[in-house]
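Most newcomers find our protein records easier to grasp once they have seen one. A record pairs a protein's sequence with a compact description of its fold. An example says more than a description, so a record of this kind follows:
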Amino acid sequence: MRGRYEAPYSGARPTVSIKQFGAAVLLANLFVIALSGLSLRQSWLQYQEIATATTQNLSRVLVEEISGDIDKTDLALKICADEIERQVSLGYIDGQTLNTSLARQLPRLPELTGIWVSDAQGRIKYGTDTSASPLDVADQKYFAHQRDTANAGLWFDKPLLAARDKQWIVPISRRLNYPDGSFLGIIYANLSVNHIVETFSTLEIGAYGNASLIDRNLNILATRYPEPLSLARLIGKRLASQQLQQFILAGNNNGAYSDSSAPDLIERHYSFRKLEKFPLYIELGMAPDDYLAGWRAEAGKTAALAAIFLFSTLALTWFVYRSWNRQRSAYDSLQNSEERFQNMLAYAPIGMSIISLGGRFMQVNYALCQILGYDKYELMQLTASEITHPDDLASHAKHAKQLLDGEVGSYQIESRFIRKDGQAVWTQFTVSLLRGNVDNPMQFMAEIENITSRKYAEEQLKLSAKVFESGGECIIITDSNERILMVNKAFTAVTGYSPEEVIGQTPRMMSSGRHAANFYRKIWQALQSTGHWQGEIWNKRKNGDIYPEWLSMSAVKNAAGQITNYIGISSDITERKAAEAQIEFLAYHDALTGLPNRRLAIDHIVLAFAYADRAKTKAALLLLDLDNFKTINDSFGHGVGDDLLKAVSRCLCSCVPDTDTVSRQGGDEFLILLTNVNDNDSITNVTEKILASLEETFLIAGQEISTSLSIGIAVYPDDSKDVNTLLKFADKAMCHAKEAGKNTYQFYTEQMNIDAVENQRIRVGLRRAIERDEFVLYYQPQIDLSSGAVVGAEALIRWNHPELGLVAPGRFIPVAEESGLIVPMGDWVLREACRQAAAWRKAGLPELLMAVNISAMQFKRGGLEQSVMAALDESGLPPTCLELELTESIMIQNPETVLETVRRLKSLGIMFSIDDFGTGYSSLSYLKRFSVDKLKIDQSFVRDMLNNPNDAIIVRAIIQMARSLNLKTIAEGVENEHLAAFLRLQYCDEAQGYHFARPLPADEFAQYLSNTLITST
C-alpha cells in the first residue's frame, strides 16, 4: 500500500492455474519454516554447549581460588600446630610469642577472621583476638570431632553466626597432640563466608545464576542466589538435589546436570567439581533465562523474518490473484484492495499504523498495541510525538520534513517509544507517504519493529568485549591451527607483547625452555580428548624474564564436534610462588633468626647420623640455653631480647663450620649439630670457642648487654643412637651445666640418667605417698641451755616407703619443692604436729613449743594463713604453743605479702623463727620489719666452731646481735657437751642436736620427755 493508489488492472486472463501457483507458494513457505526451525535448533544446542563450558570453566576457577585459600589456611594451621606441639614437648608454651605468631598469619590470610588455640577442655588459651572468640568451645562439634578422632586432619564444620559482628563463618580446625599422641587441644580458624560470597559475586553467571560451596553432606557453607533470597536463609541448610547427591555417593569428583533449585524453583544447568584436597564441592548453575537470552533474540528475529517472508508471499499471491481478476469492476477492485490492506495491517507480525500528517494515529494493528502496551482505542487518542522518547523527537521531525519535501522516498531510523507502563522500548521505525497523486500526500504509513532484545544483545556483546579487554587475567584465543587470533590488555601487560606482535604467531614463541616436548604434547592430547587442561606452566616475557603462570585451556567445538578455536586464560603467579616459598621457608626455619627450626634440625641430624655410620665417625648434639635471658627481657623489653637472640645466632654460626648446623629450638634455646667428630677434644674446642665468643658484650639499642650460655653435650653413637634420646640426654647435661654455675658445658654421663630416673621415681612415689598416708613425723627436743629443760620440739617429716623403708627428708624434700607437692605435704605436717602437741598436753606432759618448718612455696601459693588456722581449730592447740620456722629466702620474695601474713598470725600469739640463719640473705632491716622471735643458728657453723675460729666468730656475732634485738637464739647440730658449754658461755638460749637426742617418733619422744622430768625431779 506504499506509494499512491492505482486504478484496477485489466488484461488477458492468466494461463497458469491458481491451484498450481498456490501449491508452489505453499511449498516455498514450508521450506522456509523448516529451514528456520532447523537453524533455531542448531543455535539452541550451541547456546547449551556454551553454557556447559562456561559453568565448567567457572567452577574450575572457583575450585582453584577456594582451594588456594584453604591450602594457605591449612599450611598456616600446620605451622602453628607444629610450633605448639614442639613447645609442649619442651615443657612450656611461650604464650606471647605464640599470640604474635598467630597474629602475623592474618595479614597473609584475608579470608580468615581469626585463629585461636584451645586446651584439652575446650578453653581458649591463645589467639589473634580472644575478645572475638568464645571463652569455651567444648560444646562445638568440631572440638568434639577433633578430640575423639586421632587422625581427623583438617576438619570443616557447619557455618556459624559470629556473636560479635553477626557475620557468617566456617570453622576450620586441626587437632593438637602431646608427644605421646594424646589429645592436647585444637587450633582452629574462622573462614569468612562473606569472603567466599564476594568471590562468587565476581562471576558473570547472569541475573539468575547460582554458585555454592557445599560439604560432602550437601550442607551449604557459602552461596550466591538471586534476590530476594538472603544468605541467612540458606547458610548451613542442606541442598535437596537428588542428582547431585547421587553423583557424590557414586564417587564422582565433577559432572553436570539440570535441575530445579529448591530455594527458588528456577531451572538451571549445573556443573559441580570437588576440591582436590578437601571434602568440599563447588556447584555452579546458569538459568536458561540468562544463557538463552541471545537465542531468544535470534529466534524472535528469525520468526519475524519468516513472518515477513510469509507475508510477502501471501501479498505476492494476492497481487497475482488480483491480476487474474482484473476483469472485475473498478468498484469491486478498490473495495477488495481496501479489505486486503486492512487485513495486512491488522495481522502483520510487526507493528504497523497509518498516521495523519498532524501525527495522530489513524489506524493501528494488534502487533503495535503489543509493542506499546496500549489497546487500539487508547492509541488512536494519542499522537506519535506524545509517546516518542524526548531525546528522539528532533530526529523524527527532521526526517519527516525531508519526506514531505520530497528529498527522500522513505526513511528508517532506530527510535525509542515510551510504553504505557513507562518503560522505553527500542524500535526500528520505517516511514513512507501515502499519496492520492504525486502532489497530494495524504498520510504516513509506519512500520514499527521491536528491537529491544537485539539492542540488549548488542550491549551484552559490547560488555563481553569490554570484559575481554579489561579482565585482570590474560586471555588468548587461537584458531584450530594454534595461530593467535586475539589477546587482551592483561596479556600485553604481563608478557610485554603487543597484539600486533603475536597475532598470527603460535604460543610457542613464549616458551621458557623449562618444559620438555613431552609436557606440551600431553597438554594438546588432553585438549583433544577432554577439551580441557589446566596447570602450572613457565613462560617467557618479551624482555626474556621467565615467570610462572596458572593456565586454563579449553577447546571450542562447532556443532559437528570439530575444534574451531582454543581459549587460554592465565594469571601470573609469581607473587603466589614467592609466598609459597616464604611459607615453605618458615615451615623449616625460625622466623626471628632465620636459622633452621627443630623440624629441619631433626632432618639434618638423621642424615648426619647415617653419614657417621658410613664414615665410622661420630656426631655431637650441643643444646645451648642463654643464661638469665628472662631478666634481660624483663629489664630491656622483648624487642631488645629479640635483637640479642639474633646477635647470638650470628655469633654461633661464626663458631662452627659451614657443614654443621645451628638451629633455634624456641625461646632462648639453640641446638648445634657437629658432624665428622673424631674425639671429644674436637667437641670441646668448638664449645670453648662458643663460650669465649660470648664473653664480649653486645651493643643493642644503645645498651651494652652481656650474656652467657649453658651447654649440654650428647655424642652419637657413644651415648645413644636414637635422636630423641640424645636430645633428652643433651637437655639433662645442659641442666647440670646450669646447676654448675652457668657459663659452662657438661657432657652427658650415665649418672645423670640415674639421677633423673631416681628423681622421677621419687616424684611419682610422693604423689602416692600423699594418697596412701605414708608420711610420719619425728620430733627432736629443743633444750633450754641454762636449765637443761625440754622447752620445745621440732617436727621433722619422714617417709615410710613400702619398699625403701624410712626415707630421710634430704632425699625427697628437694623433689617435693620442685614439683609443688611440698604444699600438700606442708599442710599435712601442720595438722599432724598441732594434733600431736595437743595430745601431749591432754596426756599431762609439760607444755612445749611445737616448731614447724614452712616452705617458700606455701607462701607463694597462698592459703598458708587458712592452713594454720584450720590446724589449730582441728587440734585445739593454743596459738602460743606453735612456732613457724621461716627461711631467709622467704622474706626477700614478695616481702610485703609475707609481712602482712606474718603480722596477722603473730597477732594470734604464734611465734616465728628464722631457720638456718647466716646461710642466706641476712638483713637486719628484714629482721626488724618482720619482728621474728628467734634466730636458729645453722649447724654448719655450730659443729666445727671449736676448731674453726671463723665459725666461732660467726656464732658469737649472731648471738650478740640477737641479744641486742631482744631475740632468742637456738643452735642446731650440737653433738657433744663441749659445744653445749661453749654456747652457754656465749649466752645462747636454746640448743638441739644428737648430744641431747636424735629425732624420735611421737611415743618415744613422750617417753623421753617423761624420763627428763623424772631426772630433773
